[in-house]
Amino acid sequence: MEPIDSDKFMKMLKKKWSSFPDALTVDDAVKLTGYCKTTVSEWIAKKKLFGVWYYNKYLIPKDCLIEYMATKAHRICQKSKKHIDLLRQYQKL
Question: Do 82 and 13 contact (CB within 8 A), yes or no?
Answer without folding.
Answer: no
